[in-house]
């Protein structure tokens, strides 16, 4: 199955265990916002090295009215199942 490349760079920002830094592969973050969740696109500091890097810019690309949350736990490594759950098939 072909899985969109950008989906491999999504993280969940529920807490700040490393302060304002995020994992170096993160390009998109899902976080709680008001009554739902939002998705941010983040730009990391290109001068930093290491696993955790500072965010130099971010923008909301989907707000709470545009993001749906699946209510049950799912296996994130089963990409085919994730695609089925996302499409309701």
Strand content: 35-45%
Please give the oligomerization state of what you see: single chain
- Overall mean confidence score, pLDDT: 86
* Overall form: globular
User: In angstroms, what separates the terminal alpha carbons?
Assistant: 16 Å
- When the domains are counted, the total is 1
Number of helices: 1
* Secondary-structure element order, N to C: EEEEEH
Main beta-sheet annotation:
5 strands, mixed
Report low-confidence residues grouped into runs of 5 or more: none
Please tally the β strands and state the result: 5
Secondary structure: helix percent: 10-25%
Look at the helices and sheets and give the structural class: mainly beta
- Radius of gyration, Cα only, in angstroms? 14 Å
Biggest sheet: strands side by side, in what order? 1-3-4-5-2
Helix/strand layout:
Layout: E1 10-12, E2 21-23, E3 28-33, E4 36-44, E5 52-62, H1 79-87
Parallel strand pairs: 1-3
Antiparallel strand pairs: 2-5, 3-4, 4-5
Word description of this protein:
With 89 residues, the chain is mainly β. It has one domain. The chain has a five-stranded mixed beta sheet, with no helix packed on it. A hairpin with a 7-residue loop joins strand 4 and strand 5. The mean pLDDT is 86.
Task: Name the features.
10% helix, 5 strands, mainly beta, 36% strand, five-stranded mixed sheet, 1 helix, 89 residues, single chain
What does this entry show, briefly?
The chain is mainly β and 89 residues long.
């Amino acid at each position: 199955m072909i899985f969109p490349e950008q989906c491999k760079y999504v993280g969940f920002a529920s807490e700040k265990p490393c302060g304002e830094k995020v994992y170096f592969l993160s390009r998109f973050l899902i976080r709680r916002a008001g009554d739902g969740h939002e998705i941010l696109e983040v730009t990391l500091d290109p001068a930093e090295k290491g696993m955790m890097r500072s965010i130099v810019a971010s923008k909301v690309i989907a707000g709470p009215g545009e993001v749906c949350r699946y209510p049950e736990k799912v296996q994130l490594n089963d990409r085919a199942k994730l695609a089925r759950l996302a499409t309701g098939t």
